[in-house]
Protein backbone atom coordinates (compact mmCIF):
# COMPACT_ATOMS: atom_id res chain seq x y z
CA UNK A 1 0.00 0.00 0.00
CA UNK A 2 1.29 3.45 -0.79
CA UNK A 3 -0.03 6.69 0.63
CA UNK A 4 -1.52 9.25 -1.69
CA UNK A 5 -0.99 12.47 0.24
CA UNK A 6 -1.03 16.08 -0.86
CA UNK A 7 2.31 17.48 0.34
CA UNK A 8 1.74 21.07 -0.62
CA UNK A 9 1.11 22.50 2.85
CA UNK A 10 3.19 20.88 5.58
CA UNK A 11 6.51 22.71 6.05
CA UNK A 12 8.61 20.02 7.67
CA UNK A 13 11.12 20.88 10.43
CA UNK A 14 14.87 20.29 9.95
CA UNK A 15 14.08 18.55 6.65
CA UNK A 16 15.11 18.87 3.03
CA UNK A 17 11.49 19.59 2.07
CA UNK A 18 11.95 19.50 -1.71
CA UNK A 19 13.92 16.26 -1.63
CA UNK A 20 11.47 14.67 0.81
CA UNK A 21 8.67 14.94 -1.73
CA UNK A 22 10.73 12.91 -4.17
CA UNK A 23 11.30 10.04 -1.76
CA UNK A 24 9.00 10.41 1.26
CA UNK A 25 9.92 8.38 4.29
CA UNK A 26 6.57 7.88 5.98
CA UNK A 27 5.84 5.96 9.15
CA UNK A 28 2.27 4.97 9.85
CA UNK A 29 2.48 2.72 12.89
CA UNK A 30 4.92 1.49 15.51
CA UNK A 31 5.24 -1.22 18.11
CA UNK A 32 8.10 -1.91 20.52
CA UNK A 33 11.37 -1.18 18.72
CA UNK A 34 9.70 -1.44 15.32
CA UNK A 35 8.34 1.23 13.00
CA UNK A 36 6.16 0.38 10.01
CA UNK A 37 5.82 2.18 6.71
CA UNK A 38 2.54 2.37 4.75
CA UNK A 39 3.25 -0.95 3.03
CA UNK A 40 3.74 -2.65 6.40
CA UNK A 41 7.50 -2.90 5.97
CA UNK A 42 9.35 -3.10 9.31
CA UNK A 43 12.05 -0.57 10.18
CA UNK A 44 14.10 -0.92 13.36
CA UNK A 45 14.14 2.20 15.50
CA UNK A 46 17.87 2.62 16.05
CA UNK A 47 17.55 6.10 17.49
CA UNK A 48 14.58 5.63 19.85
CA UNK A 49 12.73 8.16 17.75
CA UNK A 50 14.69 11.31 18.49
CA UNK A 51 16.23 9.79 21.65
CA UNK A 52 12.79 9.86 23.23
CA UNK A 53 11.26 6.36 23.10
CA UNK A 54 13.47 4.20 25.35
CA UNK A 55 10.59 2.02 26.56
CA UNK A 56 9.46 1.10 23.05
CA UNK A 57 6.57 2.42 20.99
CA UNK A 58 2.84 2.42 21.69
CA UNK A 59 2.97 1.28 25.29
CA UNK A 60 -0.58 0.36 26.34
CA UNK A 61 0.08 1.61 29.91
CA UNK A 62 0.72 5.11 28.58
CA UNK A 63 -2.23 4.97 26.19
CA UNK A 64 -4.53 3.97 29.05
CA UNK A 65 -3.22 6.67 31.38
CA UNK A 66 -3.60 9.32 28.67
CA UNK A 67 -7.12 8.16 27.76
CA UNK A 68 -8.25 8.14 31.39
CA UNK A 69 -6.76 11.57 32.00
CA UNK A 70 -8.45 13.01 28.91
CA UNK A 71 -11.79 11.82 30.20
CA UNK A 72 -11.21 12.98 33.78
CA UNK A 73 -9.39 16.31 33.48
CA UNK A 74 -8.17 17.37 30.07
CA UNK A 75 -6.88 20.77 31.09
CA UNK A 76 -6.71 23.29 33.87
CA UNK A 77 -4.75 26.52 33.96
CA UNK A 78 -1.37 26.10 35.64
CA UNK A 79 -1.20 29.76 36.73
CA UNK A 80 -2.48 30.20 40.32
CA UNK A 81 -4.32 26.84 39.99
CA UNK A 82 -3.08 23.30 39.63
CA UNK A 83 -3.94 19.62 39.66
CA UNK A 84 -2.49 16.85 41.86
CA UNK A 85 -0.63 15.13 39.00
CA UNK A 86 1.80 18.03 38.63
CA UNK A 87 2.90 17.67 42.24
CA UNK A 88 3.05 13.91 42.03
CA UNK A 89 5.23 14.04 38.91
CA UNK A 90 7.51 16.70 40.39
CA UNK A 91 8.01 14.47 43.46
CA UNK A 92 8.78 11.51 41.24
CA UNK A 93 11.31 13.44 39.13
CA UNK A 94 12.92 14.89 42.26
CA UNK A 95 13.41 11.33 43.54
CA UNK A 96 15.50 10.61 40.43
CA UNK A 97 17.56 13.83 40.21
CA UNK A 98 20.74 14.26 42.26
CA UNK A 99 20.10 15.22 45.90
CA UNK A 100 19.18 18.88 46.33
CA UNK A 101 17.92 19.36 42.80
CA UNK A 102 14.37 19.10 43.92
CA UNK A 103 12.28 21.95 42.54
CA UNK A 104 10.77 21.04 39.20
CA UNK A 105 9.48 23.62 36.71
CA UNK A 106 7.48 22.24 33.78
CA UNK A 107 7.75 23.18 30.10
CA UNK A 108 6.73 21.43 26.87
CA UNK A 109 9.97 20.67 25.07
CA UNK A 110 13.71 20.64 25.41
CA UNK A 111 13.98 24.09 23.87
CA UNK A 112 11.52 25.55 26.35
CA UNK A 113 13.33 23.84 29.20
CA UNK A 114 16.63 25.42 28.17
CA UNK A 115 15.13 28.89 27.90
CA UNK A 116 13.45 28.36 31.26
CA UNK A 117 16.75 27.31 32.86
CA UNK A 118 18.50 30.41 31.51
CA UNK A 119 15.73 32.65 32.86
CA UNK A 120 15.93 30.94 36.26
CA UNK A 121 19.70 31.57 36.28
CA UNK A 122 19.24 35.27 35.54
CA UNK A 123 16.38 35.56 38.07
CA UNK A 124 18.53 33.86 40.72
CA UNK A 125 21.41 36.31 40.42
CA UNK A 126 19.04 39.28 40.53
CA UNK A 127 17.31 37.90 43.61
CA UNK A 128 20.76 37.29 45.07
CA UNK A 129 21.82 40.92 44.63
CA UNK A 130 24.07 40.32 41.60
CA UNK A 131 22.17 41.71 38.60
CA UNK A 132 25.44 42.32 36.75
CA UNK A 133 25.68 38.62 35.93
CA UNK A 134 24.18 38.41 32.46
CA UNK A 135 26.70 36.46 30.41
CA UNK A 136 26.33 32.76 29.66
CA UNK A 137 29.31 30.57 28.90
CA UNK A 138 28.65 27.70 26.58
CA UNK A 139 30.49 25.57 24.01
CA UNK A 140 31.16 25.23 20.32
CA UNK A 141 29.07 22.44 18.75
CA UNK A 142 26.50 22.55 21.55
CA UNK A 143 22.81 22.00 20.82
CA UNK A 144 20.39 23.57 23.25
CA UNK A 145 17.26 23.75 21.16
CA UNK A 146 15.90 26.24 18.70
CA UNK A 147 14.23 28.98 20.70
CA UNK A 148 16.13 32.23 20.92
CA UNK A 149 17.74 31.53 24.28
CA UNK A 150 18.81 28.00 23.40
CA UNK A 151 19.87 29.05 19.92
CA UNK A 152 22.02 31.83 21.33
CA UNK A 153 23.84 29.48 23.66
CA UNK A 154 24.06 26.79 21.00
CA UNK A 155 27.19 26.23 18.98
CA UNK A 156 26.05 24.62 15.75
CA UNK A 157 26.79 27.07 13.00
CA UNK A 158 24.00 26.15 10.58
CA UNK A 159 21.36 26.52 13.27
CA UNK A 160 22.57 29.98 14.26
CA UNK A 161 23.41 31.68 11.01
CA UNK A 162 20.68 33.73 9.48
CA UNK A 163 18.82 34.71 12.64
CA UNK A 164 20.33 38.05 13.52
CA UNK A 165 22.19 39.04 16.63
CA UNK A 166 20.69 36.52 19.10
CA UNK A 167 21.19 36.99 22.87
CA UNK A 168 24.02 39.27 23.93
CA UNK A 169 26.76 38.14 26.28
CA UNK A 170 27.22 34.55 25.13
CA UNK A 171 30.78 33.24 25.32
CA UNK A 172 31.75 29.98 23.64
CA UNK A 173 34.36 27.63 25.05
CA UNK A 174 36.04 25.09 22.80
CA UNK A 175 34.37 21.71 22.33
CA UNK A 176 36.12 18.59 23.58
CA UNK A 177 36.44 16.57 20.39
CA UNK A 178 40.13 16.21 19.66
CA UNK A 179 41.96 14.12 17.07
CA UNK A 180 44.00 12.61 19.86
CA UNK A 181 40.88 11.03 21.30
CA UNK A 182 39.66 9.44 18.07
CA UNK A 183 38.10 6.01 18.49
CA UNK A 184 38.03 6.31 22.25
CA UNK A 185 35.56 3.98 23.87
CA UNK A 186 33.99 5.61 26.91
CA UNK A 187 35.46 8.78 28.38
CA UNK A 188 38.62 10.16 26.74
CA UNK A 189 41.67 10.24 29.01
CA UNK A 190 42.81 13.64 27.84
CA UNK A 191 41.06 16.98 27.55
CA UNK A 192 39.94 17.82 31.10
CA UNK A 193 42.04 20.98 30.84
CA UNK A 194 39.67 22.30 28.16
CA UNK A 195 37.40 23.19 31.08
CA UNK A 196 39.90 25.95 31.82
CA UNK A 197 38.30 27.82 28.93
CA UNK A 198 35.80 28.86 31.59
CA UNK A 199 38.68 30.44 33.52
CA UNK A 200 39.70 32.20 30.35
CA UNK A 201 36.19 33.68 30.02
CA UNK A 202 36.34 34.73 33.67
CA UNK A 203 39.69 36.44 33.16
CA UNK A 204 38.44 38.16 30.04
CA UNK A 205 35.04 39.37 31.25
CA UNK A 206 35.10 39.10 35.04
CA UNK A 207 33.23 36.47 37.03
CA UNK A 208 30.76 39.07 38.22
CA UNK A 209 29.40 39.38 34.68
CA UNK A 210 28.82 35.63 34.24
CA UNK A 211 25.51 34.07 35.24
CA UNK A 212 25.94 30.47 34.17
CA UNK A 213 27.86 27.90 32.23
CA UNK A 214 25.68 25.50 30.27
CA UNK A 215 26.76 22.17 28.78
CA UNK A 216 25.29 18.90 27.63
CA UNK A 217 27.09 16.31 29.81
CA UNK A 218 27.36 14.26 26.61
CA UNK A 219 26.96 16.39 23.50
CA UNK A 220 24.19 14.71 21.54
CA UNK A 221 22.92 16.28 18.35
CA UNK A 222 26.30 17.01 16.81
CA UNK A 223 27.39 13.40 17.06
CA UNK A 224 27.97 12.20 20.64
CA UNK A 225 30.94 13.95 22.21
CA UNK A 226 31.82 12.28 25.49
CA UNK A 227 33.30 14.45 28.25
CA UNK A 228 36.99 13.74 28.94
CA UNK A 229 37.67 12.28 32.37
CA UNK A 230 37.61 15.05 34.96
CA UNK A 231 36.26 17.71 32.56
CA UNK A 232 32.82 18.11 34.13
CA UNK A 233 34.35 18.01 37.63
CA UNK A 234 36.71 20.81 36.66
CA UNK A 235 33.85 22.92 35.27
CA UNK A 236 31.96 22.38 38.53
CA UNK A 237 34.98 23.41 40.56
CA UNK A 238 35.62 26.61 38.61
CA UNK A 239 31.93 27.54 38.59
CA UNK A 240 31.79 27.06 42.38
CA UNK A 241 34.86 29.20 42.95
CA UNK A 242 33.35 32.08 41.00
CA UNK A 243 29.66 32.02 41.93
CA UNK A 244 28.65 30.82 38.45
CA UNK A 245 25.73 28.44 38.08
CA UNK A 246 26.32 25.15 36.31
CA UNK A 247 23.50 24.04 34.00
CA UNK A 248 23.41 20.51 32.59
CA UNK A 249 21.24 20.11 29.53
CA UNK A 250 20.08 16.52 29.99
CA UNK A 251 17.41 16.58 27.31
CA UNK A 252 19.06 13.56 25.64
CA UNK A 253 20.95 12.02 28.56
CA UNK A 254 18.06 12.25 31.03
CA UNK A 255 16.13 9.13 32.02
CA UNK A 256 18.62 6.39 31.60
CA UNK A 257 20.69 6.94 28.43
CA UNK A 258 23.91 6.61 30.40
CA UNK A 259 22.64 3.71 32.52
CA UNK A 260 21.50 5.83 35.48
CA UNK A 261 18.53 8.22 35.62
CA UNK A 262 20.74 11.24 34.83
CA UNK A 263 24.25 11.74 33.47
CA UNK A 264 24.89 13.98 36.49
CA UNK A 265 24.80 10.81 38.57
CA UNK A 266 26.82 8.78 36.08
CA UNK A 267 29.60 11.37 36.02
CA UNK A 268 29.14 12.26 39.69
CA UNK A 269 28.80 16.00 39.17
CA UNK A 270 25.85 17.90 40.59
CA UNK A 271 24.73 20.87 38.50
CA UNK A 272 22.61 23.73 39.89
CA UNK A 273 20.02 23.46 37.15
CA UNK A 274 19.19 20.55 34.93
CA UNK A 275 16.97 20.39 31.86
CA UNK A 276 15.09 17.32 30.68
CA UNK A 277 12.42 16.39 28.11
CA UNK A 278 12.19 13.64 25.47
CA UNK A 279 12.18 10.31 27.38
CA UNK A 280 10.16 11.85 30.22
CA UNK A 281 6.95 10.80 28.44
CA UNK A 282 8.59 8.08 26.32
CA UNK A 283 8.00 10.43 23.40
CA UNK A 284 4.23 10.14 23.69
CA UNK A 285 3.43 13.73 24.72
CA UNK A 286 5.41 16.95 24.49
CA UNK A 287 6.86 17.73 27.89
CA UNK A 288 10.04 19.19 29.34
CA UNK A 289 11.17 20.24 32.78
CA UNK A 290 13.91 22.00 34.70
CA UNK A 291 15.18 20.74 38.03
CA UNK A 292 16.51 23.58 40.19
CA UNK A 293 18.47 23.44 43.41
CA UNK A 294 16.73 24.24 46.67
CA UNK A 295 19.02 27.23 47.05
CA UNK A 296 17.98 28.71 43.72
CA UNK A 297 14.30 28.19 44.42
CA UNK A 298 14.54 29.60 47.94
CA UNK A 299 16.54 32.63 46.83
CA UNK A 300 14.06 33.53 44.09
CA UNK A 301 10.94 32.92 46.14
CA UNK A 302 12.21 34.58 49.31
CA UNK A 303 13.14 37.73 47.41
CA UNK A 304 9.50 38.34 46.50
CA UNK A 305 6.90 39.94 48.75
CA UNK A 306 4.31 37.75 50.49
CA UNK A 307 1.53 36.68 48.07
CA UNK A 308 3.48 37.98 45.08
CA UNK A 309 4.22 35.83 42.04
CA UNK A 310 7.91 35.04 42.46
CA UNK A 311 8.97 34.01 38.95
CA UNK A 312 7.26 35.67 36.00
CA UNK A 313 7.48 32.74 33.65
CA UNK A 314 5.32 29.81 32.60
CA UNK A 315 3.50 28.17 29.71
CA UNK A 316 -0.20 27.60 29.06
CA UNK A 317 0.72 23.92 29.00
CA UNK A 318 3.16 23.76 31.94
CA UNK A 319 2.42 20.47 33.74
CA UNK A 320 -0.34 19.73 31.24
CA UNK A 321 -2.55 17.09 32.90
CA UNK A 322 -2.37 14.70 29.94
CA UNK A 323 1.40 15.01 29.47
CA UNK A 324 1.74 14.61 33.25
CA UNK A 325 -0.28 11.38 33.12
CA UNK A 326 1.91 10.13 30.26
CA UNK A 327 5.07 10.96 32.22
CA UNK A 328 3.84 9.25 35.39
CA UNK A 329 2.94 6.15 33.38
CA UNK A 330 6.37 6.25 31.68
CA UNK A 331 8.30 6.50 34.93
CA UNK A 332 6.21 3.65 36.38
CA UNK A 333 7.22 1.49 33.39
CA UNK A 334 10.87 2.42 33.99
CA UNK A 335 10.56 1.26 37.59
CA UNK A 336 8.49 -1.86 37.04
CA UNK A 337 10.64 -3.11 34.18
CA UNK A 338 13.95 -2.00 35.68
CA UNK A 339 14.75 -0.02 32.52
CA UNK A 340 17.66 1.93 34.01
CA UNK A 341 19.32 -1.37 34.87
CA UNK A 342 18.36 -2.85 31.53
CA UNK A 343 19.93 0.11 29.74
CA UNK A 344 23.10 -0.36 31.79
CA UNK A 345 23.24 -4.04 30.82
CA UNK A 346 22.90 -3.27 27.12
CA UNK A 347 25.78 -0.79 27.11
CA UNK A 348 28.64 -3.29 26.79
CA UNK A 349 27.17 -5.37 23.92
CA UNK A 350 26.04 -2.22 22.10
CA UNK A 351 29.37 -0.42 22.41
CA UNK A 352 31.23 -3.58 21.48
CA UNK A 353 29.15 -4.03 18.31
CA UNK A 354 29.57 -0.37 17.33
CA UNK A 355 33.33 -0.45 17.92
CA UNK A 356 33.66 -3.19 15.28
CA UNK A 357 32.63 -0.64 12.65
CA UNK A 358 36.09 0.90 12.91
CA UNK A 359 37.32 -1.62 10.37
CA UNK A 360 35.24 0.06 7.64
CA UNK A 361 37.32 2.29 5.43
CA UNK A 362 34.78 5.13 5.37
CA UNK A 363 34.57 5.34 9.17
CA UNK A 364 36.86 8.10 10.45
CA UNK A 365 35.91 8.14 14.15
CA UNK A 366 33.58 6.44 16.59
CA UNK A 367 32.54 7.86 19.95
CA UNK A 368 30.25 6.22 22.40
CA UNK A 369 28.97 6.20 25.94
CA UNK A 370 25.99 4.49 27.49
CA UNK A 371 23.41 3.76 24.81
CA UNK A 372 24.68 6.53 22.57
CA UNK A 373 27.12 6.28 19.71
CA UNK A 374 28.36 8.63 17.00
CA UNK A 375 29.95 7.15 13.88
CA UNK A 376 31.72 9.66 11.62
CA UNK A 377 31.96 8.94 7.90
CA UNK A 378 34.52 10.54 5.63
CA UNK A 379 33.00 13.62 4.02
CA UNK A 380 32.27 13.36 0.33
CA UNK A 381 32.31 16.43 -1.97
CA UNK A 382 30.04 18.43 0.29
CA UNK A 383 29.52 18.15 4.06
CA UNK A 384 26.31 16.25 4.75
CA UNK A 385 26.03 14.68 1.32
CA UNK A 386 27.22 11.25 2.38
CA UNK A 387 25.21 11.51 5.60
CA UNK A 388 22.00 12.12 3.67
CA UNK A 389 22.76 9.22 1.33
CA UNK A 390 23.38 6.90 4.22
CA UNK A 391 20.22 8.01 6.02
CA UNK A 392 18.13 7.07 2.98
CA UNK A 393 19.95 3.80 2.36
CA UNK A 394 19.66 2.75 6.00
CA UNK A 395 15.95 3.46 5.88
CA UNK A 396 15.62 1.33 2.75
CA UNK A 397 17.58 -1.39 4.53
CA UNK A 398 15.21 -1.26 7.51
CA UNK A 399 16.92 0.96 10.08
CA UNK A 400 16.09 4.43 11.31
CA UNK A 401 18.97 6.43 12.78
CA UNK A 402 19.70 10.09 13.32
CA UNK A 403 22.23 11.65 10.97
CA UNK A 404 23.98 15.00 11.49
CA UNK A 405 26.28 16.13 8.71
CA UNK A 406 28.21 12.94 7.95
CA UNK A 407 27.77 11.37 11.37
CA UNK A 408 25.44 8.48 12.12
CA UNK A 409 23.99 8.65 15.61
CA UNK A 410 22.63 5.52 17.22
CA UNK A 411 20.58 5.40 20.41
CA UNK A 412 18.70 2.11 20.69
CA UNK A 413 15.62 1.69 22.86
CA UNK A 414 16.34 0.20 26.29
CA UNK A 415 13.86 -2.60 25.64
CA UNK A 416 15.95 -3.93 22.74
CA UNK A 417 17.39 -7.41 23.01
CA UNK A 418 21.15 -7.80 22.53
CA UNK A 419 20.55 -9.58 19.21
CA UNK A 420 18.37 -6.69 18.04
CA UNK A 421 21.01 -4.10 18.87
CA UNK A 422 23.56 -6.22 17.03
CA UNK A 423 21.20 -6.44 14.08
CA UNK A 424 20.94 -2.63 13.99
CA UNK A 425 24.73 -2.31 13.89
CA UNK A 426 24.93 -5.05 11.22
CA UNK A 427 22.61 -3.01 8.99
CA UNK A 428 24.88 0.03 9.41
CA UNK A 429 27.87 -2.15 8.55
CA UNK A 430 26.27 -3.56 5.41
CA UNK A 431 25.08 -0.18 4.15
CA UNK A 432 28.31 1.71 4.87
CA UNK A 433 30.33 -1.09 3.26
CA UNK A 434 28.29 -0.72 0.06
CA UNK A 435 28.66 3.06 -0.12
N1 LIG B 1 18.77 20.32 24.35
C1 LIG B 1 19.35 19.21 23.91
C2 LIG B 1 20.62 18.74 24.54
C3 LIG B 1 18.78 18.50 22.85
O1 LIG B 1 19.39 17.41 22.38
C4 LIG B 1 17.58 18.96 22.30
C5 LIG B 1 16.88 18.23 21.17
N2 LIG B 1 17.58 17.28 20.49
C6 LIG B 1 17.01 20.13 22.80
C7 LIG B 1 17.63 20.78 23.83
C8 LIG B 1 15.75 20.68 22.22
O2 LIG B 1 14.66 19.86 22.50
P1 LIG B 1 13.30 20.03 21.69
O3 LIG B 1 13.57 19.58 20.28
O4 LIG B 1 12.35 19.14 22.44
O5 LIG B 1 12.92 21.45 21.76
TrEMBL record:
One Gene Ontology MF term: pyridoxal phosphate binding
Transferase as UniProt keyword: yes
SUPFAM superfamilies, sorted: PLP-dependent transferases
Alphabetical list of Pfam families matching this protein: Aminotran_3
InterPro entries attached to this UniProt entry: Aminotrans_3, Aminotrans_3_PPA_site, PyrdxlP-dep_Trfase, PyrdxlP-dep_Trfase_major, PyrdxlP-dep_Trfase_small
Name of this chain's protein: Beta-alanine--pyruvate aminotransferase
Lineage top rank: taxon: Bacteria
Reported cofactor(s): pyridoxal 5'-phosphate
Annotated family: Belongs to the class-III pyridoxal-phosphate-dependent aminotransferase family.
Keyword Transmembrane helix assigned: no
EC number: 2.6.1.18
UniProt cross-references to Gene3D superfamilies, sorted A to Z: Aspartate Aminotransferase, domain 1, Type I PLP-dependent aspartate aminotransferase-like (Major domain)
UniProt xrefs under PANTHER family: AMINOTRANSFERASE (PTHR43094), AMINOTRANSFERASE CLASS-III (PTHR43094:SF1)
Coiled-coil features, chain-numbered ranges: none
Amino acid sequence: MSLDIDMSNYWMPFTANRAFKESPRMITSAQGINLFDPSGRRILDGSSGLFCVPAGHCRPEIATAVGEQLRKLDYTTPFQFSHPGGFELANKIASLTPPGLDRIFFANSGSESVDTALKIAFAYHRANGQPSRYRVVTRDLAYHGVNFGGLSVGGMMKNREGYGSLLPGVVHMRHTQTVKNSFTQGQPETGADLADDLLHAINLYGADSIAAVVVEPIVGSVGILVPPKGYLQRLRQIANQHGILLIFDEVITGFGRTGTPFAAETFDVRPDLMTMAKALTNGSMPMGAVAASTEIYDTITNAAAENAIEFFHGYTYSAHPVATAAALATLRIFEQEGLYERAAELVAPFQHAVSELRSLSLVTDIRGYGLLAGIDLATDERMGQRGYAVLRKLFEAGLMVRVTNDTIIMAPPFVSEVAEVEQMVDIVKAVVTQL
